[in-house]
Amino acid sequence: MTPASPYLRHYAKAMLAGATIATAAVNIAPEVYYDAIEWHPFDSALLDSLHLFHPGLTLATLVSSLLIPMFVLLIGKEIWEALVLARGGLHGKLAIAPLSMVLGGMLVAALLWQVLTGLIETAEEATDAVGWVMPFGSDVVLAFFFGRMIFGKSHPALQVLLFMCILDGLIGLVVSGLVTPIGFNLRPLWLLLPVAAAGIGYVTLTRPLHAPNLLERDRRRAGQIWPWLVLGLVSWVGVSAAGLPPALGLLPLLPAMPHGDHSFGMFAEAEGFLTDPLNRVSHFLMAPVTLILFLFGLTHGAMDFGAFGPTTWVTLGALWLGKPLGILAVAATLMALGLSLPDKLKLREMAYVAGLMGIGFTLPLMALETALPGGAMQEAARLGLGLSLLAGPVLFLLSRRVPPKAPLWSKPSRQ
Questions:
Q1: What is the pLDDT of residues 67-92, one digit of tens each?
Q2: d(C-alpha 230, C-alpha 414), whole Å
Q3: Nearby residues of 360 by Cβ (< 8 Å), 6 or more positions away
Q4: Which residue did the predictor score with more confidence, 3 or 322?
């Protein structure tokens, strides 16, 4: 395992900077802020019918629909390689424990959302809401940002944290898309487009690279990146038109793209030396994603402190109590059955990982438009997601008094 890329910390700082500016703007001049991010440069019946920029082409939907898929492709690439590479951190049986804990956290968080909604929400606010999908998805970059402060630079718990945050986020996006599709209408036939794009890419670009007597000229032609960009656009249109979150639009290409044959760990710096098409795309996106996450914080991270309401408490309860309790319950069960936790972590380290996964920001914010009624309830939930970031500093201060155990370097991680 090599240290994670410093870009992860840049991403966290960029998103926090954008959210801070947005929060200041929405509390000082809310009309100006909302006019800016919700301005419609033009109306298009075609875009509306395909749900490409729901609920319309604005600065906010341009970022969440067209730019965030690049960030999701980056984190999806890491999970995909961890799953399929022979020494990947989630290969084979290694995926059982992290996946079980992620699902346990999601289940308890959803149940606690429903319980808290029944206890402190009014019936009118809760009508027709599917808010239990809101706590699905942990913030990868912010959890890592605080996790590095708690565990240090190369502790194996950081890899486990990344594994579980990405699994949680991607599963959450899929579930929220299926439960609350864009336009409240799932159109699965459009998914033939991403399937076709992936198939064409594999047959025409990936499979030729495995030919035994491939000429160097043909190898370079098959390894070009621009055809994948065209196929990515086709895939993105199909996923969005199907009613699923546009953020998932590029993921169907991952199984079809040529990738490396060795796992160095999640977001490992050593991947910068790999030249396969998937890693080349990843290298190209690393720097632009910093700007993308700044723009996401600027357009989606505004916390209106006047919006504090019952849904804020429900959101914080599901994230800070439900998700960690679910994760730790599964972890304790695995240990009771004599099974090892990922990377042979102990329950104390898993408690910090579970607490950091209670930070919900980037991906949960995408569920707001369809999971909850608009207006006050959405803004109260947005404030709850923003306040969930406080888990990071609190856990860091706690770690100074109750530090996590040092890694067992005599038993190196398989990641």
A1: 999 999 999 998 998 888 877 788 88
A2: 36
A3: 134, 135, 137, 138, 139, 315, 319, 385, 388
A4: 322
Check whether the bond before 55 is cis (ω within 30° of 0).
yes
- Residue 91 Ramachandran class (φ > 0 left, ψ -120 to 50 alpha, else beta): beta
Instruction: Indicate the burial class of 213 (C-beta count within 10 angstroms; 0-12, 13-18, 19 or more).
Output: exposed
- Residue spans of alpha helices (H) in 29-155: 30-37, 45-50, 59-61, 68-84, 96-120, 123-126, 140-151
Please write the tens of the pLDDT for every residue from 42-75: 777 777 777 788 778 889 999 999 999 999 999 9
b/e per residue 366-382 (b: at least 16 CB within 10 A): bbbbbbbeeebbbbbbb
In whole angstroms, what separates CA 180 from the centre of its chain?
17
Cα distance between residue 342 and residue 282, in whole Å: 26
3-state DSSP assignment of residue 414: coil
Query: What ranges do the domains of the chain cover?
Result: 7-401
Query: What is the end-to-end Cα distance of the chain in Å, rounded?
Result: 5
In a 3-state reduction of DSSP, which class is residue 91? coil
Please tell me the distance from the alpha carbon of residue 85 to that of residue 80, in angstroms, as a whole number. 8
* Topology classification of domain 7-401: Na+/H+ antiporter like fold (1.20.1530)
